[in-house]
């Protein structure tokens, strides 16, 4: 109970950390109960049903198709319960203040305005929840949430049109029959959250061994995928302290530093990784190191590093894009155009599991060519 109350409190000022904690230790029953209790003073308890039945499944289906995360059925079994618990905590956190002040809001205009603000806050939290569960970019998560909202609105419309035809579902015999048919699927959906929480507990137990750097590294990867960078950095740094010869934690610390705009820190960690393993992550350390040096203004150094990477990984859209940027800075326009064109071709021909990643660099290369 105490941990779940803390998760609810974290929603207000550290939502990414709150969703990470919900995925690790949260109770789905607690989240559902709080969401229903919060909705009662707002006469919106019925709204929880489309949230569970439409909003969450639609969001998962959209992000799974957009980011190539597997088939819809696989994605639903894997991510339904994890996203549901985060969305329920989001709904509880967003509408709790409104439920508390509802008796003091007299004018309908004030109540409607407060409701709109709560809804917007819920959608923002839902975007962060989708990012935490799927690791999607902010724009893709926002698109998935918008699609879920549209699906929910359509569900309301369809129910208003044909809902009277579904009254037979209220029969106890029909409900029992539906439950018996769908029980295995419901159990498999809930298993997605249980498996994540059990895996995390096992990793936490492994960290009790003071010499097990890999457990900290794996936990860091989990937090990094959820965009909970403070926890991820702490785990990677602990892994470095235990085993400084492992290039993996250095590489991930460099990637996080790059994403946060700390280019000097990124350069230091990436150089340490490259010194330990020249071909780490299929030589991607040289691509990231070259891009970092380019951002720091070390163009000549970046040229050497990126040409080295592209020689090894010719069909990598990101590597070709950054090499094109370097050529452009050096006023080597013809070579820059060729690099951008190769980046576009690499993005077009990327295998399905790489299209999500390559699409960003394909678009940026097209922008450079138009410019």
- Please tell me what the overall shape is: globular
State the helicity in percent bands: over 70%
Q: DSSP helix count?
A: 17
| Rg calculated over all Cα atoms | 24 Å
Structural class: mainly alpha
The whole-number mean of residue pLDDT values reads 86
Order of helices and strands: HHHHHHHHHHHHHHHHH
Q: Tally of extended strands?
A: 0
Set out the fold topology.
Elements: H1 2-13, H2 15-25, H3 28-39, H4 48-66, H5 72-101, H6 108-134, H7 138-162, H8 172-206, H9 213-225, H10 229-242, H11 247-259, H12 263-276, H13 284-295, H14 299-312, H15 317-329, H16 333-348, H17 352-370
Please name the defining characteristics of this protein.
371 residues; mainly alpha; 17 helices
